[in-house]
Design goal:
Low-confidence stretches: 129-133
Distance between the termini: 68 Å
Mean pLDDT: 82
CATH superfamily of the largest domain: P-loop containing nucleotide triphosphate hydrolases
CATH topology of the largest domain: Rossmann fold
Order of helices and strands: HHHHHHHHEHEHHHEHEHEHEEEE
Strand content: 5-15%
Shape: elongated
Oligomer: single chain
Length: about 400
C-alpha cells in the first residue's frame, strides 16, 4: 500500500484528523499527493473537506480536472488507527531525502568542508520543521495559559531552576532560547558561581570550560558537594572525617546529568558545534559557557567586534537549540579606577552587543576582594537587565573554603 495515499484517504474520510498530522506538503514524494494534501489544508478554514471541495479548489488553481485523482486517493486503502504511523513514515523519508541532498551538496562543492555549517543543517533537518511559525490568537493565548499553569504548578518558576531560590523568584528561572550573561572581574568567583548553579539545578547541563581543565573542574565539583575545603583536596591534606564526606559527595555528583567540554580557548563555532552534539546525544537543557571572551575568534576585527560576534552566535545558539545559554563574561579594568568597584554595564567588553543580545545581565561582586574590612562571606549579584522581571541587587552567601555560592534571600 502507498503510505502517502493511505494517509490522504484517512484524512479525506476523517477530515477532523487533519490538524493532528505534523507534516507539510513538501514532505510528500509524489507531487500529486503533495498537491492534494496542500489543497486540503487550504480548503479546511473555509469549507468542509471532501472530494468535491478539494477537486474544485485544485481545478481553480491549475485549470485541470482533479475529480478522478482525488477520488482514487479517497478510495485507497487506509486505516485511521495507522494515521500516526503513516505520518511518521512520510516525515522519516522526507528527512532522509533532505539529509542526502545536504550531504551531496557539501560533498561536491568547491573548497574546504565546513563541518559547522553541515552539522547545523543536518540538525535542522532532524528538528520538527512542520510546525508553522504563524500563530492564531487561539494558539498564542493557549500557549501563554500553559505557561501560567506551569508557573502555578512549579510555585512561580516557569523556566528551569537556577538552583538559587531568590534568583528563580525574580528571573522565573532560565527560559528556553534566552542568553543570560554573568559579568565579573577576576577573583570574584565567576566559575564558582556557575558551578554552584549547575550542581544545584536539576536540569541536564553542558559546561563549556575554556579556562579550566577537566581535573580542575572536577575538583570544584567535589569540593562543593563534599564540603571539604578545596585547598585540602589540592594539597592532599585530608583529615580522617573528610573521607566519608568525599564518598557522599561523589555519590551525589555521579547522579547528576552533566557533561563537560574542556578545550582551552575554543573558537565560538566549535563551541556551537559541541553544544549541538550534546543537545542531540544527551538532550541537555542548559548550556553554561566559561567564559565569553575566551571564545573570541582570531581576526583583524577589534576585540569589541569579536566579543559582539560571540554574543550574537551564543544568542543564535540559544534560539536554535531552544534552551538557555548562561555565559560568563570578563569585565575591563575601568572599575578599578572608581571608588565604588561595583560593576556597571559599560564595564563589559563589547557592552553594546552584549546588552542588545542578552535577555538578562547580572554582575557578581564581593566587596571583600577590595576592602579587607568587609565580611568575607558576603557577596551579591546585581541584575542590570532582566527581560522577565525587575532589576536590582540580590545578596548571596560565599563560602571561600569550598568556593560555593548559596542563597542569602531577599532583594535589595
Amino acid at each position: 500500500m502507498n503510505t502517502e495515499q493511505g494517509l490522504l484517504s484517512v484524512l479525506l474520510n476523517n477530515p477532523s484528523k487533519l490538524g493532528l498530522v505534523p507534516i507539510l506538503a513538501s514532505d510528500f514524494e509524489d507531487p500529486t499527493n503533495a498537491a492534494i494534501y496542500q489543497a486540503m489544508v487550504d480548503v479546511q478554514p473555509n469549507s468542509p473537506i471532501d472530494i468535491v471541495s478539494v477537486s474544485e479548489y485544485l481545478e481553480t488553481k491549475t485549470g485541470q480536472n482533479w475529480v478522478r485523482a482525488v477520488g482514487l486517493v479517497a478510495n485507497a486503502p487506509g486505516s485511521v488507527r495507522n494515521l500516526e504511523t503513516y505520518a511518521e513514515n512520510i516525515k522519516h523519508r522526507a528527512k532522509q531525502k533532505a539529509s542526502r541532498e545536504i550531504l551531496t551538496h557539501y560533498l561536491y562543492r568547491d573548497g574546504d568542508l565546513d563541518i559547522n555549517a553541515l552539522t547545523s543543517e543536518l540538525m535542522r533537518v532532524g528538528a520538527d520543521q512542520s510546525k508553522s511559525r504563524i500563530k492564531s490568537m487561539r494558539d498564542v493565548v493557549t500557549s501563554a495559559f500553559h505557561d501560567i499553569e506551569k508557573a502555578y504548578e512549579t510555585k512561580g518558576i516557569p523556566g528551569i531552576s537556577t538552583g538559587f531560590n531568590s534568583i528563580d523568584e525574580k528571573l522565573g528561572g532560565l527560559h528556553p532560547s534566552d542568553l543570560v550573561v554573568i559579568g565579573a572581574r577576576p577573583a570574584m568567583g565567576k566559575t564558582a558561581f556557575v558551578v554552584s548553579m549547575m550542581l544545584s539545578s536539576p536540569a541536564k547541563s553542558f559546561f563549556v570550560s575554556g579556562e579550566m581543565s577537566e581535573r580542575q573542574v572536577g575538583a570544584r565539583f567535589i569540593s562543593q558537594r563534599s564540603f571539604v575545603p578545596a585547598t585540602r583536596l589540592r594539597n592532599g591534606e585530608l583529615q580522617e572525617d573528610d573521607w566519608p564526606k568525599l564518598t557522599n559527595g561523589m555519590e551525589i555528583l555521579l547522579s547528576k546529568k552533566l557533561w563537560v567540554y574542556d578545550k582551552p580557548n575554543p573558537d565560538i563555532d566549535e563551541v556551537c558545534q559541541q553544544a549541538r552534539i550534546a543537545r542531540h546525544e544527551h538532550q541537555i537543557e542548559v548550556i553554561y559557557c566559561d567564559y565569553l571572551q575566551k571564545f573570541c575568534p582570531d581576526g583583524r576585527d577589534s576585540k569589541v567586534e569579536r566579543v559582539g560576534e560571540v554574543a550574537i552566535k551564543l544568542k543564535g545558539l540559544a534560539r536554535e537549540l531552544d534552551c538557555p545559554v548562561v555565559a560568563l563574561a570578563q569585565l575591563n579594568r575601568n572599575l578599578e579606577k572608581r571608588p565604588d568597584k561595583r560593576p556597571i554595564m559599560s564595564d563589559l567588553e563589547g557592552a553594546g552587543a552584549i546588552e542588545q543580545e542578552a535577555d538578562s545581565i547580572g554582575f557578581l561582586y564581593r566587596d571583600n576582594v577590595y576592602n579587607e574590612n568587609s565580611p568575607p562571606n558576603e557577596a551579591e549579584i546585581r541584575w542590570e537587565k532582566n527581560r522577565h522581571g525587575p532589576t536590582g541587587y540580590m545578596p548571596l552567601d560565599w563560602n571561600p573554603q569550598t568556593m560555593t555560592f548559596s542563597d542569602n534571600g531577599g532583594w535589595l
